[in-house]
Each structure stands twice: as structure tokens, then as C-alpha cells.
């Protein structure tokens, strides 16, 4: 036996270094969690387009503030009332300043004596105010409402959820009962009650949203915090005497970020819908300010005669809602690959 | 016992009527011989109790299903109702009505003088909580009873047998007969009120009727009901419609969709719809007897100056105001008294008393007057706040006035701020005199100019601006006393009074509210009055297309 | 189980008590009076009327009276409809709302399940994509816009259904669709996800291996198991239908609670506002409890007695 295995020192030769770790190599560059999510999001065409639409809307509506604001909204030119769309260079009936009156297409701009070079791309309302400007302003209001709702979700919702989950025991129990009370009144009813007590306007809507919008976020954060609490790294941090605030900030929030982002994306369309709904039933934003809901309500009354006055704000509102919904779906898939199919 | 049986029987009739009308409404297009009117309104019917009604829907249903001493016809003309003969004493303080003997309640009881006595006493009784009891002011002891100082039985109304009614007044009421067409003065069947108790007037079956129609299918909170011809009405041969179906549609667009599809014959229009439908067949403008006007607080030196008051009035472009603030569904005011309210010898009160210079728009003249006025009071500029409601309309109104005045006189001469408060706050601040300028509204309850002009007498609590004019007070006083029984003189007094008010710019009228309707041309003979109860369908009929 | 139920019911009662209290005091903050003709009434008369409505009493007393009445089912008297008890207003109008809500829920869930399943079975085909697109649109179009469009195009222009009113089944179809599209979109998205999950699981592979037909697999295994999580959606749907009904009933002139609620807000009818708010809350709390119980029964993995979450 021994004779068969005669190993000489020269039998042992070093392999070339280059071939050494080939099988273990990670081909792709190393990515952080956010980078990975971004990569996945970029693959989702719908989400990317939505993101662009949302960004464009934000830029347009906020960027227009110097040109479209309270002062310009008040100004009216009754002589240009109820003009249809007129887009430079387009000659399709309905978009060229003509409207159907008793079966004949009539040039409304000529009738109203509008100068040749004046265009209202989205037409005008009953006081001759540019509908386009009003839609821009309305979109801004919707986005502000969305931002505010997000803000309360992030501040009240997240903090409440973390505290409730982290403290546990009696504190948790009481905090959960409070949430139960708030969420057992339909949130729109809360909003309506708030608006009845305080006078309608953007301030009251914001206050009402502050009260009612954050409960879902708080619940989800609490459930997740309960799980994270028993993770080793959190235990380690606790044993080492780290302060709870620091733990929350350093360990919990980063790990909760995907839930936070996803939930936010569902809060936004809900908030936009809220505002539109309230304005539609007549207790939302009041004149001279306007919002998409107000425009829809005004347009709805006129739908039989001047359908464009409802269609344009409706389309803008729907595009906004669709974009946020698609973006929300995209982000959920990106941040939570397990649910992706 | 007997009554209970009768009530049951009438309930059965009412219920079967519901079924009949339900069938009737479905086949209304095919059966041409049936006269059916389908009417759309935008609010529910809150009550059928004549003592408690406060809104136009209730008043309209009451006016068509009940009847008082008189029924108001076209231009508030007084037509016979339950009273067939009226005697007025020489001093105008005692009215003796002889009632017709063939008037019946829908439960079979006869309509007697006692029903009037009972009804009136019930209304002025503070325990009933009638919000329209103030109309009894002037009837003997009414005010004391309302304040709880006297018993309801002491009211100046007595039944002399079953068919004679004697009413005594504290002071002359020249428009007394007009009031009798208003539902709070209608009779009420005591046995029905007692039997139904707190349910009285809360559903069509908890009510008895003595008018041209009977209400049916109203559960107290639903959105559709009908008025069906009352076979026990004394003048039923002149009632032409078999059924009027009422449908509540709160969205104007829904109502107009229904109108277009032929499901309803008449509907009120929203401002936007009115603008688009103006001039089409069926478009009807119904002026309301309510005027919106500015009161200037005359305890402030700048508003004691006539030229400044006139300047402010002339700086307001009323037709633009109507267009911008009200989206076109109202008319610029011609004076304090609303137009279409009262006529004499075929002339409308507003035409007779029109003072053009008090309501026209003339910025040049306004500016001149304003500067002269400033010199007279020795000031370089004035500053004030306009008080109004915090509603959408209130805000738009103050905004408009603010910009109109600033534009007319320049921001260095005038500084106008706006204060928009809830309705209740506005009222209390107005009555306390805690305001500079306030935008108020007033609606007339009966078709007589006095229902407006009374407000501006020196001691009236509604005269919050404290405008005083002795001559005006004298004319109003004369219209109530010396000239009360002389129609021509009284008319003249009131016309002169309005002219004084306008020439002295005691108030600044802004606009008169009105409603736009689409009514099918086939619906004929609808009687509409701008004050008090709006609709009388007694002789309405449908013919042609 | 019994103990758990008792505990839940106790919390329900506590919740409703708090809601009632908060609403009561909110209403007291509201501006305006119940008198529509206040301008023309004398101060004495207003005082007498206040006395009749009990508004002259101190607030704590009004509160105790209100709460006491509520225990007996007395929600006070409406200001808008004279002498009409709020409980009567609610009971006479709840039928239409309940019918509409239930129909919309059934419509939404039923078609949602069908669309969702079809999408899941035909995953990653054009069928799947179109269902997804439709459900995103369904989620994004506000129901009041949809209602106006349906009324104008389907009812007025095409004349297929009545425009408005509440007088038989035909009248319920358009409002049901307008109200049910939201739940439909949500259900179909939810269903698709759940079904895909189930179709990927081992027991479906086993069923396939046993040679069951596609229909048998979907019907007997996949559908049943993916239906379970749907129960959790009933609560949120109830909320959506309650609020949605406020405008839908308004647009289609339906004598329901939602429409009544909006009207009572606009006319300062506090007793009705409070009554309807209580009704909504009680309804929602009950639905949540019911779905929790149902969920516990059909899915034994969830232990009821566990965390009350």
C-alpha cells in the first residue's frame, strides 16, 4: 500500500493564481438595497412612465405659481366665457375653437371677438377664465393635499407605530384602542365632520387629513416593529445600552423604509380622491381658489352643454391617480421582491 | 271611535291612491285622457304641519292640498276660498267672514269656523314653536300670546256658529286679505291634530286635507310623492289635473337629463344650465321676491354724507355683479322692493318708483360725487369693512365689491376690507350695529311693498344702518292708518316712500334673486307668485305638446 | 372563544361610546342654528324654541340626555324635518342604501373574482395585461365621475336604463355599477395575486400530476384557497361603499342614508348628523368583528384568541 502512494515533493505544484477564485466571483457590481430597488423599478415601464408623469405634473403645477395664483384666478373676462379648446396648428373640430351648436360647427372664438393670436388650449370657464390655468392650480392643490397626507403619514403614522410596537404592553394596548376608535368611523365622515365644524378650505382639509389618514400606516409599522424588536441586532443594541430613539432611528427606520414607501404610495391617491370628493359635494375648497374636485363639480353641471369642462379635469385627475397607483405598484415590486410575480 | 274608523278608511284610500298613482305614473304617456304633471324639485318636503312649515316646498304642497279663507291667483289676486263673503268694519279693525257650507275635510268632517279658530290659536301658542307666527302681528293680542303674557284663547278670532268667523285687529293691516292666502292662516282639523299627536303632518297619512289635491305617498322622508285630485273639494269641477308627481332631484344635471328624456315636465335649473338654455322653448325665469342690498352704518360720519352713499352705489356695476358672482341667474335690483311683487293699474311697483340715478353704474359721476363728499366731511380718504356671509356667494360678493370700489375711487382714497362670518354671526353683528357696511338679504312673505318698506322705518330693528327720514316714516304711517282703506292713496304713499329711500340712498340695492326653470310648453295655467307661496296648481292643465 | 368575543364586544361598545361623545361635542362647536327663519323671529320666540329643543340646558346636561336617549334607541328629533325622529328617518332610508351597498359589493366581488382568476390563469398574456390595466383604471376613476358619465351616455343617450329614481330593479343597475367598480378593481387585483400564489404551490402541482383537468384544479383547489384572504377586504369595502353612496345616491336621486347625510350637513341638522355618524360607525365596527370571526372559522391558521390585531 505504501509503495503505491509514493509522493514526491515535486508532485506538489502551486496552481496559477489567476484561476483560483473564479467560481465564487460576483459578476455584477455590488448594489445596496436602494440601488437594487431602483434597478428593479427601472425595469417596470409603467412605473417609470408614471414617475415621469408625476414629476412633470409637480414641476408644471408648482412651477406655474408665478403665473397662476390667487390673483390671476380672481380675474375674469366674461366676454370670453365658455370657449372650447383651441390649440395652435390643430384643425380638428372641438380642438380648433369650434363648437357644435345645433348640429353645425361654429367658430366660437370669432363669435366672442377673441384676437387671432389668443389661444385657450383647454378652453375657458363660465367667466372666461382659462380652464388650463385652473386645472394647473387644481392639480397643485391636489398635490399639496397629497404631500400633506404623506407628511402626516411619515410623522404621526410612523412614530405612533414604532412607539406602540416598541413599548408593547399596556401602552400598546391603549394606543391600539385609540386607532380602533379613529378607524371605526369612516374617514370621510371624520373629514366631513371636521369641515362642518371648521369652515371649509384647504386648512380644514389638511387638519381633517391629519386626524384620519395615518392610522393604516401606524398599524403596519407597529406590526413590523413587533417583528424587528426581537431581531438579534436590535437585541444587541439594547444590551449595549443604546437609547431607544437612536435604535429607532438607526435600526428600525431603515428596515421599515420599504413598508413606509409602499404605504405612502397608497396614501397619496386616497388623499387626492378625498379632496376631489369633498369639493364635489360642496364642502371642500372654496372660491376663488379651485381644485380638481371643484372643477369636476362645475363641469358636471355643464356636461350636457360643454362636455370639455368636465372631461379635461377628469382626465387630469385620472391620469394623476393612475400614475400614483402604477408607481405604487412598481415601488412595491421593487422594494419587496418576494411579492413580485 | 267613529273618527278612528274614518281615519282608517282614509288611510286605506290614501294607500290605494299610492298604488293607483304608481300605476298611473308608469302609463302616463299612453293614457292621454289622464291629466298628469311630473314636477322636479331640489329639496325634500320637511313637514305638512301648517303651523311649522318654513320652506317653499312645504308651503307649495300646503297651498295645493289645503285652502284658507282665500286662494291667491295670478299676480296675488285674491280669489274666493273657504270664505264666500267678507265684511270689513269701517275702522278696518274687524273682519267678518261668512264661510261656505260645502267645504269638507278629506276625513269627511265639515270645514267650520272652529277649524280656523283652533288653527290660529295653535300657531300663536308659543308651545307649538311656529317660526312664522310673527305674521299674526296686528291681530288682537297676538304679540302678547307669543311672548307668553296671554293665553292663546285670547287671540282676536271668534267663531260665531259654524260658518261665521270674526277677526279683530289691534291695528289696521291693509294687506290682511293677502295674508289669508298664506298657509299659517289655513284651518286645521282639531280632531286630526289631536289624534295624530306628534305625528301630525309628518307623513301623508297623518294629515287631513281640504284643498284641490290630497297628498299621497309621502312617508316623511322620501324623495317622491304625489298630489292627487281631492274628490271632496268644494270646487273640484275646476281642478283639471288628476295627479301631480313630485320628484326630488338634488343634482341639477340629473333633473335636466330627466327633463330631456321626457320623464318630467318641469325642473329648476342650475346657474350654468340657465346660461346655456336661455332663450330656448320652455325656459322660464321666475323672479323671487327677495332683494340683496347694502346697509351703510349711518352712525359713522362718512356714511351720513349723501354724496358718498350715492358714489358707492354708482360704483357698482350690477349687471357684472350678477354675471360674475351669481353666474347669471338673477337680475340687477331696480330698487328695494323686488320687481314683480305688486302692481297697481297694470304698473309694477318698481317701475312706478324707479329712481335711475340710485342704481345706475357711472364711474365718472361716482368719482366726482365721492371727491365732493370727501371734501364735505373734511377727510382725505375713508376706510371701512364690508360684512357678509362666509358662504361661497358671500365671499365672491365682498370680493367683487372690494375690487369695484377700489378701482373706482383709487386705493389712496378708499380702503375696503372684507369680513366673512357665519350667517348667525352676521345677523347678531348687524342687529347690534357692529358693522360699517353689511350685505343683507330680505324676502317678502306676502305680495305687498310694505313687506319691504316697513324695514326702513326709523324704529324697525331690521333698519340696522339707522337711516332716518321723517317724511318716509310719515308716508309709511299714513299707508297704514289714514290711507289704509284707499288703495290709490296708499299705493301713492308707498311709491313716494320708496322714491325717498332711493333718492336719499338709505340703502344700496344690489340684486334681486331669481330662479330659472324649464317647463314644457304643454303645461298651461301654472300660477306663480314671487312672494309668499309660489305655486298654485288648482287650474293647471296639460294640453298639446 | 367566548371570552374573546365578550372582550371584542366590550371594546366595540367603548368605541361607539367614544365616537358618540366626540361627535356630540363637535356638533356643539358647529356654527349656525336649526331655525331656517331666524331672521324674522323675535328673541323671545327663539328662547322658547331653544327650550323646546332642549338647547337652553347646560351642555353637560344635553350630553347626558342625548346619551340616555341613545340607549333607548332615541336619537333625538330632526331639526330639518319637524317632529320627525332621527331613528325613523334612518330606518325609512336605510333600505335603499343597504340594497345598493350589498348589490355593489356582490357585483364588485363576483366580477372581481372572475376577472382576477382569468388573469391569473392566463398569467403574462394579453388577457392578464388587459385585466390589470382595466383594474388600475377602475381604481383611479372617481365613482362620481363614472356616475355622471353612465347617467348621461347609458341612460340618457342610449336609453338602456332609467336615468334616476328608485322604483324597481332596473333603477338599481347603474348606481350599482358606479359604486361597485372600485371594489371590482380591487378584488380582481387581489384575486390575481392570491391565485397566482396558490397556482404555484405544491398541492396544485400534485393535483396536476394526478391528472386533474384544468377546470377541476382551478375550481376545487385554486379558487377556494385564494378566496380566503378576500374576507379581509370586506371591511374596507364597507367604508368605501358608505362614503361612495353619499354622491351616488345624490346623482341618481336615491332615497338613501348617504344622501340624507349630505343634506343634513348642509342644513345644520345636528341630530341627524350624529345619528348617521353613529350608524356608520356601528355598521363598520360590526362588519370588522364579523369578518374577523368568519376569517377565524374558515382559516384555522388564524387563532382568534391570539393578539387582537
From TrEMBL, chain A:
<dbReference type="GO" id="GO:0015833">
    <property type="term" value="P:peptide transport"/>
</dbReference>
<dbReference type="InterPro" id="IPR000515">
    <property type="entry name" value="MetI-like"/>
</dbReference>
<feature type="transmembrane region" description="Helical">
    <location>
        <begin position="310"/>
        <end position="331"/>
    </location>
</feature>
<feature type="domain" description="ABC transmembrane type-1">
    <location>
        <begin position="139"/>
        <end position="328"/>
    </location>
</feature>
<keyword id="KW-0653">Protein transport</keyword>
<dbReference type="Pfam" id="PF12911">
    <property type="entry name" value="OppC_N"/>
</dbReference>
<dbReference type="GO" id="GO:0005886">
    <property type="term" value="C:plasma membrane"/>
</dbReference>
<dbReference type="GO" id="GO:0055085">
    <property type="term" value="P:transmembrane transport"/>
</dbReference>
<dbReference type="InterPro" id="IPR035906">
    <property type="entry name" value="MetI-like_sf"/>
</dbReference>
<protein>
    <submittedName>
        <fullName>Peptide nickel transport system permease protein</fullName>
    </submittedName>
</protein>
<keyword id="KW-0472">Membrane</keyword>
<keyword id="KW-1133">Transmembrane helix</keyword>
<keyword id="KW-1003">Cell membrane</keyword>
<keyword id="KW-0812">Transmembrane</keyword>
<keyword id="KW-0813">Transport</keyword>
<feature type="transmembrane region" description="Helical">
    <location>
        <begin position="266"/>
        <end position="287"/>
    </location>
</feature>
<feature type="transmembrane region" description="Helical">
    <location>
        <begin position="47"/>
        <end position="68"/>
    </location>
</feature>
<dbReference type="GO" id="GO:0015031">
    <property type="term" value="P:protein transport"/>
</dbReference>
<dbReference type="InterPro" id="IPR050366">
    <property type="entry name" value="BP-dependent_transpt_permease"/>
</dbReference>
<comment type="similarity">
    <text>Belongs to the binding-protein-dependent transport system permease family. OppBC subfamily.</text>
</comment>
<dbReference type="InterPro" id="IPR025966">
    <property type="entry name" value="OppC_N"/>
</dbReference>
<keyword id="KW-0571">Peptide transport</keyword>
From TrEMBL, chain B:
<keyword id="KW-0732">Signal</keyword>
<dbReference type="InterPro" id="IPR000914">
    <property type="entry name" value="SBP_5_dom"/>
</dbReference>
<dbReference type="Pfam" id="PF00496">
    <property type="entry name" value="SBP_bac_5"/>
</dbReference>
<dbReference type="GO" id="GO:1904680">
    <property type="term" value="F:peptide transmembrane transporter activity"/>
</dbReference>
<protein>
    <submittedName>
        <fullName>Oligopeptide-binding protein oppA</fullName>
    </submittedName>
</protein>
<dbReference type="GO" id="GO:0030288">
    <property type="term" value="C:outer membrane-bounded periplasmic space"/>
</dbReference>
<dbReference type="GO" id="GO:0015833">
    <property type="term" value="P:peptide transport"/>
</dbReference>
<keyword id="KW-0813">Transport</keyword>
<dbReference type="InterPro" id="IPR023765">
    <property type="entry name" value="SBP_5_CS"/>
</dbReference>
<dbReference type="InterPro" id="IPR030678">
    <property type="entry name" value="Peptide/Ni-bd"/>
</dbReference>
<keyword id="KW-0653">Protein transport</keyword>
<feature type="signal peptide">
    <location>
        <begin position="1"/>
        <end position="24"/>
    </location>
</feature>
<comment type="similarity">
    <text>Belongs to the bacterial solute-binding protein 5 family.</text>
</comment>
<keyword id="KW-0571">Peptide transport</keyword>
<dbReference type="InterPro" id="IPR039424">
    <property type="entry name" value="SBP_5"/>
</dbReference>
<feature type="domain" description="Solute-binding protein family 5">
    <location>
        <begin position="78"/>
        <end position="462"/>
    </location>
</feature>
<dbReference type="GO" id="GO:0043190">
    <property type="term" value="C:ATP-binding cassette (ABC) transporter complex"/>
</dbReference>
